[in-house]
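Let's practice the habit of predicting before peeking. Look at the sequence and jot down your guess about where helices and strands might fall. Then scroll down.
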Amino acid sequence: MTDFAAEIQNFIATYTYYARWSDLEAAVRTLCNNQLSLKSAEIVRLSDENRSIHKTVLEQSETFHESPDDPFPITLVHHNQHQQVIALTRIGRKKDKTKFSDTEKTALKTLHRYLNQQVQYCKDRYIITANLEQQTQAFNAARQEVSQIGRVKDNFLSIASHELRTPMSVIRGYADFLLSGKFGPLNDQQKNFLQKILANVNHLTKLVNDMLDVHKLEAGKMEFVRESVSLRKLLEESVSEHQILLQEKQQTLTFFNPQNVEPTLETDPEKVRLVLANLISNAYKFTPRKGNIEVCLQPQPESDLWLVQVIDDGIGVSANDKNGLFEKFQQVDNSLQKKYTGTGLGLSICREIIQALGGEIWIEDNAKAKSGSIFNFTLPA
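Done guessing? Here is the structure:
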C-alpha cells in the first residue's frame, strides 16, 4: 500500500502544469492504469449538457465522493474559485478487485488537491484560448472589412483624381479663355460670374488635391524627391507666385531675411512649395483687408535647422482651437467656419510633409502685432 501513495507523490513531484485537458487526462489515465493498477480513470469536464448525468454526485457536498457499487467507486470533485463544480476525476476499480484502503484513500485525497489546481489551470487556459480564438476571428473579420473599405476608398480616390479633375480643368480653361477677352468683350456682371466660377473650381480642385495628398501620406505612397535647393530662392518664388491671390483683399505679402542668409538644403522643393502654399493661403483667409503677411527665413539657434515663419496680423487662433489644429478635418470654432470655408486638411498635410522632411511645425501668437498668428516650421540643412 505504501507503493500506491509513493506513486502518487512521485506523480505530483514529477509532472508540471498541463496546458491542455487532453494532456492532463492522458497523464492521470497513465498514472491510474499503469502505476496504480486501476482498471480505468477519467476526467470529466462539466457542461450544461452532461451535468444531469452526474446529478447524484453534484447534489452532494463532498469533494471526495465514494460509491462502492459503481464502476468508478471514487469521484474527486473539482471546484473553481467561486465554489462551482467544473470537473470530476472518476477513479475506477482496482485490477485485483480489492477495495481501497484508508491509506490509498488518503493518497487519492492528496492527488485530489493537486488535480484541483491542475483542473482550474486547464479551465482558465481553455477559456483564455477560446476567447483568444473569438477575438482573432473578430480581428480577422474586421481586418477584411477595413481592407475592403480601403479598396473602396482607393477606387473612389482614383475616380476623384480623374473623373473630377478632368472636367474641372476643362471648366477652368474655358473660364480663363472667356475672361481673357479673346472671344469678345465682357461686361462687368459677366466677368463677376466667371470669376466666381473660377473661384469655386479652384476651391473644389484644392479639396480633391487635399484628399489625394492625405491618402498618399496615410498609405505611404507620397514620393519625396530630394535635391539641392536654395531655400531663400524657393521662398522668394513662393511669395512672388502668391501676390495675385492677395490683390483681391489688398493685402501685402513680403519676404523677410533679417540675417541675409542663403542656405542650401537637401529637400523636396515641390513639397516645401505645397506647405508654403497652404500656410500663405491660410494666412490670406484669416487676415482682413489691407492686412500684412510676411514670410521670414532665419537660422535656428544652436542647431543645423532653418526656421521658416509665415506671419500674419489676422484674427489669430484661440487657445482651444490650437489643440489638435494640425489634425485632419480640424478647423476653428463653428462661428468662424461659415465665414472662412476650408477642407480642414491643409495643416494636417503640412505637418505630415514637414515631419517626413525631418522638421517640425507649430503655431504661436503674433505678439508684436497684438493679433494674428505665426506658423513656424523647420527644415534640416
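How did you do? Confidence is low (pLDDT under 50) at residues 334-338.
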